[in-house]
Sequence to fold (535 residues):
Amino acid sequence: MTEVESHTPADTRVAAEAERRRTFAVISHPDAGKSTLTEALALHARAITEAGAIHGKAGRRSTVSDWMEMEKARGISITSTALQFPYRDCVINLLDTPGHADFSEDTYRVLTAVDAAVMLIDAAKGLEPQTLKLFQVCKQRGIPIITVVNKWDRPGRHALELMDEIHERIGLRTTPLTWPVGIAGDFKGVMDRRKGHFIRFTRTAGGATIAPEEHISPDQALDAAGVDWENAVEESELLSADGSDFDRDTFVTGETSPVLFTSAALNFGVNQLLDVLVELAPSPGSIVDVDGEPRPVDAPFSAFVFKVQAGMDSSHRDRIAYARVCSGTFERGDVLTHAATGKPFVTKYAQSVFGQQRSTLDSAWPGDVIGLSNAAALRPGDTLFADKPVRFPPIPSFSPEHFAVARGTDPSKHKQFRRGVEQLDQEGVVQVLRSDKRGDQAPVFAAVGPMQFEVAAHRMSSEMGAPITLESLPYQVARIVDPADADFVDRQFSAEVLTRSDGVMLALFSTQWRMESFQRDNPDVILRDLIAARS
Ligand code: G4P
Fold:
């Protein structure tokens, strides 16, 4: 990979390397085409030569991973991957997010590590529940959003109607950069609204390779696309009259969103998305620490862990912590400080992860993701730094809505059981709650969605060697409760207090109604909200 000239002074070089990074995630409802788009982006950036290389979709080239069995069987994506590839003068870091709602907490963690998000919408379906939810997270965090209307090669809704829906339902003003030529289902190309010309796409066999595109001047576009071009011009003029032209300031603050039209499966419009990322998406900037102080990109090295994952591949059984570099330079072998414990952390085993393939990573810059193996001590939210101490704010946990008691089925495996539970807890696969009443052998797993339980149970038996049973508990609502009130709440009918592994006490209630009526009857007891997983 090309790097900025190495003879520039160190801090100027860090700033220059940061400047050319684009770190983003694709958020979407399952099936909108996230995996397909991810591959198409890598294909267009020439990081892979054929679609199908990263996710190993059915019928295409497959990747080796027993962990993927569950994903394949269910047709969902659980594990997230970080892809890095060069495009033009930039380095693109694409952080994949699990699509299923049950893993929203995981997605949330990934979104703490990006500078922009691509909101992918299915042209026929418009805004779907998971898109809405993830959009809210981006909005809360002020993450700029690029909207991509995908599957334009299939019959779908009218483009203007989709723009209205986005504005009306989520208050995001759209500023299309491209506009489709041809209705959904008859995708001929796009109008580049900034330059005014027609980009005509040509299909390739099976969409496995880059689709050729021709750039046709406005005066020739009418001959080339006839009435479809006329419609595109007319609608584009309507958009301009309505103030829907791109504006960088409001894009960066998350008030407006540039829009592109694609067919990820046919590789149409993917180049345009890469160009927009390079030309318009923000590069890494200062990140504010727990004390509210910004850590500029050229400060000494700092990073935070946004994800911990194990068991992805049986040939690499260890645990990997993914950290986003916030400032400074990372060199493999650097000894960093783990802010939570003050202990040194040796980075001999740093990796970059490309889909399921891993390779040794020698250096990294702000915006990059480092995969750190042998990372038993690291948890999501932890800060690593060199020289000048810093601590970034913790990643808030989501409010669990499903609770189940975990019990080992084989008493002789109690050590494996304990270690396994601890590991799942540290990775954030589930939250682990305990109480004296229930005892250490019967911890309570708390999750945003029941599929997290399936993952936990699967890993306990296949990876930790300690099969478990999970008995669900009749609670739906959790609130943080003060230790002083814990006993009182615990004595209530349909309520129980348990302690999370980070020491926070959670009061569980059978229903929202019970929790609210308890609160009405006992206004002195303070119950605090966790982040709601579903709006
Ligand atoms: P996800 O990661 O968001 O869940 O979606 P994914 O990429 O897996 O895509 C879901 C389905 O939609 C796949 O079909 C995929 O081929 C299809 N798809 C994605 N983008 C487009 C597009 O632009 N146009 C059309 N027509 N289809 C698209 P599948 O039948 O589930 O799988 P596959 O066998 O085709 O891979």
User: Anything to note?
Assistant: The domain at 3-280 is CATH 3.40.50.300 (Rossmann fold).
